[in-house]
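Pasting as-is:
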Amino acid sequence: MNNKKIGFLEAFSIGVGGMVGGGIFAVLGLTISLAKGAAPVAFAFAGFIALVTAYSYVKLSLRYPSEGGTIEFIVQAYGNGLFASLVNTLMLISYVIMLALYAYAFGSYGAALITGGDVAWLHSALSVAVIVLFTVINLLGALLTGKAEDIMVFIKLGILAVFAGVGILTVDWQHMSPQHWESMPSIAAGGLMIFLAYEGFELIANTAGDIENPKRNLPLAYYSAVLFVILLYIGIAIVAVGNLTLAEAQSAKDYVLAKAAEPFFGQAGFIFIGIAALLSTASAINATLYGGGRTSYLIARLGEMPESFEKRIHNGYEGMVIIGLLAIIFSLAFNLDNISVAGSFGFLIVFALVNFANFKLHAETGANRWIAGFGTLLCVAAVLVLVGYNAVHSPQSLVSSALVILTVVLFNVFYRNLRSGDMNLSKFMDKRLERAEHERQQPE
């Protein structure tokens, strides 16, 4: 049994590292094209949803500290049946989409650094290569994975901090005046399409069973991580919008952060941020593959995924290979808009259900039902706005979302029917939590 505890700083770093991945590099240009001068407002709007949802994660993490994290909360609130299986598989597919997004961004910035623009074949080749590379690294063992992650997280946060701190000095604030804003529906849609840039704070939940002084450190880690990233993203958006014209931002949509560094760092700035993007997206791929592999393994233990996900290859899981292959398919088959919509759609649904889980289990978690209920309605409304806006303005962007939902439903229905006689279902994801609950219920 692992007795090593982690403190606030480690939990905070996990949350920030999970959020500040490839998302900001990949989707900043998309946000600017939708919200224009109000891009910082769009990031603040999406961040508010994440902050409200963090409240439910705090309450559920304190009550059900488990390495299963979000999966455990779903099982506790809705039971371990078909519905929980659907939600858990949706979350896993959403992680696959995140991998595709990171790989897409890696290809965009890599091609821009090598050729000065986005060359399609090079973009695709780099996207595939980075997923293959980190799948191999993950299979070699957790030690190498962790060391690589520590180095990349430190470098990417340092570079982004320098970008925001120096870039703010050359900002043209007129670019963000209300006359350069898009309509409120477009601003909201811009925030929701890039909501997946805030995905990652929920990874703190997976550490809840190993954190010291959880009543203090868990809430502090969740709220400070989300607030820090909201401020960082708003600062980055201000620098990007304030240093580029709309035409410049749209022409460099897939690598806009590197382009935004040119006014104050010159060509060296383009290279500087391009390298940061490569490190950041690679870091996110590395962490998501490792987390996704563990998640698929935990689901396999419940009988909700094929047994192949549970098999070991060297020091990793076969699930990592399957996840990597799916991510390659998504990154090659869909464009950035499709990937962003599908990813944000998936996580907004999962977060709506986590908020409702907190609402439903309020007697157990000690939650304020008004806040949990507000979080549920906020996420549901966000899903409706996201789908409605794209149905009117960009219906093709919903194709990948529809395909994801259809795949998740068909997979679960057919697979569970196929294995209905030998499903290994449990009331708990985490055996440590199950033992703790058993001891808790014993009479004094």
